[in-house]
Amino acid sequence: MKYQATWNDRVIDVELNKESSTFTAGSTADEFEFTLDNGRYFLRIGTKLHKIDNVNYDGSDIEFSMDGKWFKVSVKDEQDLLLDRLGFKTAGSSAEGQVNSPMPGKILDLMVDEGDLVVKGQAVAILEAMKMENEIKAPVNGTIAKISVEIGQSVEKRTPILEIK
User: Fold this and answer.
1) Which of 27, 111, 143, 152 has its CA 20 to 30 A from that of 118?
2) CATH 2.40.50.100 holds for 96-164
3) pTM (2 d.p.)
């Protein structure tokens, strides 16, 4: 799968091949392995092992610490890039109160009920994807108007999880 990552105003084209566990990022190509052990994420690139913690998603922006250093990266997939080229907003930016799955996965927990008040940045659900547990956070302040998924349900990227009014 092809992606475009922006980090520190630097744009990097990335291609992941999950079947062969290889990637290409700019002019770099190597093998990778991504694992979860006791709540901590590990990324092996070639022979180097990195520890990843504090993963937070806000639409296509991902913030995390790796080996103790903080990173904020904006990641767009092929569909996001096509929508940008055509002048359309991506799903996350066009419906601020709509919380969609940022990637395919399984809903492990819903931390709110319909009618609950939430604040921007509050965790509302846990999504398991690629053996990682990811907190899904509220993009806006408001009240949970509708929950569209159930615990244990598998979802695709951009599947509506809940709506905040």
Assistant:
1) 152
2) yes
3) 0.52
Tokens linked to 95: 């419906």
Beta bridge partners of 75: 5
Cβ neighbours for 37, distance < 8 A, ≥ 6 positions apart: none
**Annotated domain spans of the chain:** 2-78, 96-164
Q: What is the DSSP letter of 84?
A: H
pLDDT digits (tens, 9 = 90+) for 7-30: 888 999 999 998 999 999 988 999
Measured CA to CA in angstroms, residue 117 lies from 28, 70, 88, 152 at distances of 46, 30, 30, 24
Instruction: Select from 65, 73, 124 the least CA-distant residue to 100.
Output: 124
CB 75 within 8 A of CB 3: yes
Yes or no: say if 161 and 99 are a contact pair by the CB < 8 Å rule.
yes
DSSP-based three-state secondary structure for 25: strand
Residue 51's nearest CA partner among 32, 74, 35 is 35
What are the structure tokens assigned to 47, written together?
């022979």
Cα 116 to chain centroid distance, Å, stands at 24
Residue 89 backbone dihedrals phi, psi, to 5 degrees: -80, 150
